[in-house]
Amino acid sequence: MNHTDATSDLDEIDLEIIREFEQNDEKSLEELADELDLSTSAIHYRLNQLKDSGVITSTSANIDPHALGMSMVTITEVYVYHESGYADDIGDELAALPGVQQVFYTMGDVDFIVVSRVQDHEQMNELIDKIVALDGVNETSSRFVMRELKNDSRLLETMSDEMIDKVLEAE
Question: Rounded to the nearest 5 degrees, what angle is found at the Cα of 152, between the Cα atoms of 148 and 153?
Answer without folding.
Answer: 135
